[in-house]
Amino acid sequence: MSNNLLNGKRGIIFGALDENSIAWKVALKAHEQGGKFVLTNAPIAMRMGEINKLAEKCGTIVIPADATVTEDLAKLVAESTAHLGGKLDFVLHSIGMSPNVRKGKVYTDLNYEWYQKTLDISALSLHKLLQTCMKQEAMNEWGSVLALSYIAAQRAFPGYGDMADAKATLESIVRSFGYYYGTQKKVRINSISQSPTMTTAGSGIKGFDSFFNFADKISPLGNASAESCADYCIALFSDLTRFVTMQNLFHDGGFSNTGISEAMMNEFMSK
Length: 271
Description:
about 270 residues, alpha/beta, Rossmann fold, 6-stranded parallel beta sheet, 10 helices, 6 strands, globular
């Protein structure tokens, strides 16, 4: 159901790969709520996904950009504001990838060149994006930037590898850049710490299925779906949340504040 929460607002959505992607669902919701936006992803990801189909559904264009390359980001932001006819009101940073995790390297035996790539792709790209937007004065006042995070930024989760360090850095950038962007331009920056979600990226983590089921049993409300996460993103893009900034917001069915659940206790007791 549309309430036109984003009517008249313009944005950029990073990271839509296929229909399982949270960014894909955010794009559909933003379109439904009256938002106008440009889609973007790295050229290699675009070859793997179906982003052009999404663009057609949303009546928009795709501008390829490597989010680790400042020149690409500068071109993306400039071309997006030109295409949309004005400054941006919302941006979704849904970018994350670890060569170490993909190649099965455990945290205590990392390839450090890959580790630097993990940090650059999954965290520093947010700083580069924000710095680019600020230098180009590309965001309207009360604009909203969201980055997708995970609770491994605060707690140890074996198997999540160096992505945990990247998410911790990402959340720090949200706070630090959020202060400057807020005081100078009234732009708000937040991260969403989402439940384990059956996306293409998430399911590539070793043991993901088992952890997905574990989190679902711990969370009082169960795991939050990608669809629900998209709804939350729209709310945070809208004017209804204009004084929320510099926060890491847990969207996880209560997992982050639950020690143990009756469902898990019953499972242990039955063995």
